[in-house]
Specification:
By secondary structure, the protein is α+β, with helices and mostly antiparallel strands. It has a single domain, classed as Acid Proteases (Cathepsin D, subunit A, domain 1). The protein has helices at 44-51, 97-105, 117-122; strands spanning 2-6, 8-12, 15-24, 27-33, 41-43, 57-58, 63-65, 68-71, 74-82, 85-94, 113-115, 126-128, 133-137.
């Protein structure tokens, strides 16, 4: 069974940024959908503020992308919700300070979550740019451990 989720598009400097609502830590936030991102990444400081750092695992390999070629990466398993779909997912945690600075410089809203292809593929996500909706599979979806 599939469900439809409303997307928010924000255009800036001849580009479009796609956002979706997610629920995590008992609140609703916006998350950037990045169809070019291999993996989902969450803001390290934001997550640490909510769960502390005792459950964070330092990853040996550094990450590239997001405007930098060498960043320290952590990982942790988090529970969150996209639409009606509950996820229990291991996500990468990185320092979003450079992302926050860039978005602030362009007068855009700050966010703490990037939904990448690992989750989009698992959810069998289909983005309809005309209707500004995304459909996802509500059935059993494997969890990344």
């Amino acid at each position: 069974m599939r469900t439809q989720l409303k997307l928010k598009f924000q255009s800036k400097d001849n580009g479009a940024h796609i956002f979706i609502s997610i629920k995590i830590f008992k609140k609703t936030y916006i998350a950037l959908i990045d169809t070019g991102a291999t993996s989902t990444a969450f803001d390290l400081d934001f997550v640490k503020d909510h769960i502390g750092d005792q459950h964070l695992q330092l990853l040996e390999n550094s990450a590239g992308g997001l405007g930098t070629t060498d960043m320290v990466m952590f990982a942790t398993e988090l529970k969150f919700k996209i639409g009606e779909k509950n996820l229990n997912q291991t996500v990468a945690l990185i320092d979003f300070s450079h992302i926050h600075q860039l978005y602030e410089m362009h007068g855009m809203k700050k966010f703490h979550f990037i939904i990448g292809n690992d989750i989009l593929i698992d959810l069998q996500a289909i983005i309809n740019y005309k209707t500004k909706m995304m459909s996802i599979e509500l059935g059993r979806v494997k969890s990344k451990k």
